[in-house]
Design a protein that fits this description.
With about 325 residues, the protein is α/β, with parallel strands linked by helices. It contains nine helices and 13 strands. The chain is globular.
Length: about 325
């Protein structure tokens, strides 16, 4: 018997990419509301309740409405919005977050797909806090750049209409109240929210997140080698991990830090750069904001929930 998958919001950027990844899967039946019934509210309810897994690619309020329409105990949900990322009863869908997370996702009824921005911070800091190399009270900062596809339909339309006249680099979230902050704090295991400065670039997809560490104020100052080893050991212990750790190297620059370099894959690559004499470290994560940051993570979570190899139909 094939698993029935309904993508609620399949016409959006994330929904389209999920459907593309699943199109050739013979063990899945992709449910889709017929064109003639697209505006029928009852059709959405019907398809949500007919699915084994419903993947919600919707704004927060619409995602909450979809969840409220599910009246059975059998439809499992993967929500790609921010509505449930820190909600009770929902399992966070970053499979490589720690050793137990894949199993938690596999058995979950409700999974919240992680946000694109938080994954880089969580991947960089959680292993270090878990290893005792950084305190949970560390005053973390994170910045970076993402392609304009991360901003949804309105930002995509705006950038595409402006073409070369669109800003090459545009910081935003300057009121420091970004909707990802609670998610970052909880799953990086920080005791306070980080200072977060995201930016959008004039390119479609791909992202780079940067977490600088000023370590001189710590009672015990870890070396770059210790930090790198803790991060590498963390991800090496997780089966089917899509997170890789670049070798520790003293470099002034590298093409691997191109934010578009992992586009079309489900990989997330971490880099550690350190100057032990100055007690300064920079943790960098490169990944596709529409891959590991959205649709790829959703497919990975769906595979886990169905008991299928989590790498199926995903490019490593």
């Amino acid at each position: 018997m094939t698993a029935r998958i309904f993508i609620d919001g399949e016409a959006g950027t994330t929904g389209l990419q999920i459907r593309e990844r699943l199109a050739a899967r013979k063990e899945l039946t992709l449910l889709s509301i017929p064109e003639a019934r697209r505006k029928d509210p009852a059709a959405r309810t019907e398809f949500l309740n007919a699915a084994d897994i419903a993947i919600l690619c919707l704004p927060d309020d619409a995602a909450k409405e979809s969840v409220s329409l599910i009246s059975n105990s059998t439809t499992r949900v993967i929500d790609a919005s921010t509505a449930y990322r820190v909600a009770e009863g929902w399992t966070y869908g970053f499979a490589e977050m720690d050793r137990a997370q894949s199993a938690a996702i596999a058995s979950a009824n409700r999974v919240s797909n992680p946000g694109c921005w938080p994954q880089g911070l969580i991947a960089a800091l959680r292993p270090l806090i878990a290893a005792g190399l950084l305190p949970a009270s560390y005053a973390a900062t994170v910045n970076g750049i993402s392609g304009y596809s991360g901003g949804g339909k309105s930002m995509i339309a705006d950038y595409q209409s402006k073409g070369e006249d669109a800003p090459e680099f545009m910081p935003y979230g300057l009121g420091f109240g970004h909707k990802h902050l609670a998610e970052m704090q909880r799953y990086a295991q920080l005791s306070a929210q980080p200072l977060f400065m995201p930016a959008v670039g004039n390119y479609a997809q791909g992202m780079l997140t940067c977490v600088p560490l000023q370590l001189a104020s710590l009672a015990t100052i870890p070396t770059g080698k210790q930090l790198h080893a803790a991060i590498a050991d963390h991800f090496a212990a997780i089966p089917h991990s899509f997170v890789e750790v670049a070798p520790l190297a003293a470099l002034e620059r590298t093409p691997e830090l191109d934010p578009e370099s992992l586009n079309g894959t489900n990989r997330l690559r971490l880099h550690v750069f350190a100057n032990d004499a100055k007690a300064q470290v920079l943790l960098l994560a490169v990944y596709d904001n529409l891959g590991k940051g959205a649709s790829g993570a959703a497919v990975q979570n769906m595979n886990l929930m169905l008991g299928i190899n989590p790498t199926t139909s995903l490019v490593a």
